[in-house]
Structure formats: structure tokens, C-alpha cells
Amino acid sequence: MRLRGRLGTALVLAGVVGLTTTACFGQAGSSGGSAQSVVFANTGGALAEVFKQNAYGDLSAKGITVSEESPNNEAKLTAMVQGGKPTWDVYYSTPYTAIGKCGTLFEKIDYSRIDTSGLDPAQMSECGVPVLNSYFVLVYNKDKYGANPPTSWADFYDPAKFPGTRGIMNFAKDAGMETALLASGVPSDKLYPLDYDKAFATLDKIRSDVRFYDTGAQQTQALQSGEIDMMLAWPGRAYDAAKSGAHLGVVFDKPLKYFDVLTIVKGAPHADAAYALINALLGQRNQQAIVDRLPYGAVNSAVGRSSDPAIDAFVADDAKAKGTVVVRDNDWWAKNLDEATRRWTTWVNG
Predict the structure, then answer these.
(1) What is the pLDDT of residues 88-144, one digit of tens each?
(2) Which of 155, 171, 323, 330 satisfies CB 3.0 to 4.6 Å to 95 for a cystine?
(3) CATH number for the domain that contains residue 74
């Protein structure tokens, strides 16, 4: 099996935790052996509920109890690992964090212990196993734009042609710079390395119209309330707003593809149970439940797309994008996250 980038023989699950809420799911103990436990640091919310209702039940039958902590915070993870006594085992992470912190925050993955059937080798790294596919998309208020809606990132960054408030997550990683460059005409295959100056020149065009958000819940509320007319959106949060009555449209021109990964924390106290959890999360039952409940794509190729049109309306793919899908360069982000974050923060506060 050929794996992308710096792949090794050990598995790492990375997570992110700040404020911590812990909940235990499943029954410890089984007829086959002693009880085990595993601590999963993840993002919480609807996705964690899917995990609980599907993957954790399979583990319970094997005598493994899953405890969750969320939201996951990298600063807390770092302190745990540096202190030599991590309490987390599996961490829900970005692929570039798994690449950049492989061997320091995360264990290398032993892929002989992972069922990789159906996974894309290009998404597998030494310390990160793919768990979910998604895209950054442009979402807009249909009531605002009527018969003349935006159709591209260029429209998002053109407040003269399309007046209205814009929403962007206030993190460098959330595609503000990439979409600004795409809007300015940079070809998709020439996007990296990011041209910061050109990106911020385009972002300057919407500075007086943009609102920044720090959480997915804020993103949903802004779309639902009508505070925002257009959003550089996470599809899951846009779908949540639509379920609550927001009249939203989605633009599928040049959606930016991303995926999330599972990692194993460096020095994880329950490594065996961590591998069992990862396999359960990658399993067909859990992957199918993700696409049936939420507007994301499975990483297991045996799983189809959602049959619910309300969900599918927010799911990008090659067909909807008419061949314009842009794939994020995670190796570039692994090397440049700190500098990109510094540049982004300087612009936002400038």
C-alpha cells in the first residue's frame, strides 16, 4: 500500500480541547475479557452525536467504554504531552496538524492495525487517518439576492456588484486567503504557495462588509438570523441554519476540498482501545450514518452519498462543481500554519 507523504507504521490521533465536558458512552466489560476505556477529544456537536449512536455501540459490545472531551484544544493537548501524562487517547484533528506535529504530539500510526479498505491513500499520513470529507463553500441568502445570486468567489469579494454583509471564520485555516486568491484569478493549480499580499488586497475590498466568527455555532446563528448575507461556510453549519428556517443557496464553483483526520496522542495510555475506536469510526456503519445525517462525505469508498435532498443540497462534489474542485495543500499548511496565522491576524487587526 502506497501512502502519501511521510507515512510510517504507527497511528496518531490528534485532538483539540479548551473548555472540557466529559461524557461516557457504552458498557464496560464483556464476556471475552476485562473492561477497557478510551478517551476521545473531538469537536462535539452533531458529528459527535453520530459517533456516539453508531461507532461507540460497536465498541461497547467489545467491552470498550468511550469517554468524550470537547471542544478539543491543541494548547491543552500540547501541555498534556509535554507534561508526560496525557489523558486523551484519540484526537480529532486537521490533516496538516497531524503532519506538522507527527512524532511530537502524535504517535505514528501502525497501519497494520487499521482497516484501510476503502480509504484514499493520498489522505493517509504517518500520524493521521482520514475520517470525514468536506468542502468550504459560498452560501448566500436567497431572499437577499433573489433572481441575481452570486455564482463565484469573485462575487463574494465584489461588494459593489453584490452589496451585503459577508461572514468569514476568523482563522487563517478557514479559506479566507485561498478564496480571495481564487477570486482574483489565481489558477487552482497555482494556489500554493499562497501569495499573502495578493490575497489581502482582495480581502481589503470587503473589509467594511465582513464579520468574523470564532465558532461554528456563531456561523449558524448569523446565517439563521439574517445578520449575514453571504458566508464562506462550513456546510454542516449552513445546513443547521437551513433546518432552522434560513432560506439559503449554495455556490459550487471552485469549492475548496478539505478532510479531517483521527490521530493517536503521543504517549496515549490506552493505545489498543484507541485503534479499536479508529476502526469503529472508519467502519461502514458509522461512515454511512455521517452522510445520512450531515452534509459531509464519507472517507470509506464503500459508502454512498446521502439520499436526503435537504442534506445533499449542501454537499459539494466533482459533478456539482463541474470539474472546478480545489484541493487544499496540507503539506504547505503543515509548514506554514504559524506564518499564515500571523499574517491573517495582522490583517484582521489592521
Answers:
(1) 999 999 999 999 999 999 999 999 999 999 999 999 999 999 999 999 999 999 999
(2) 330
(3) 3.40.190.10
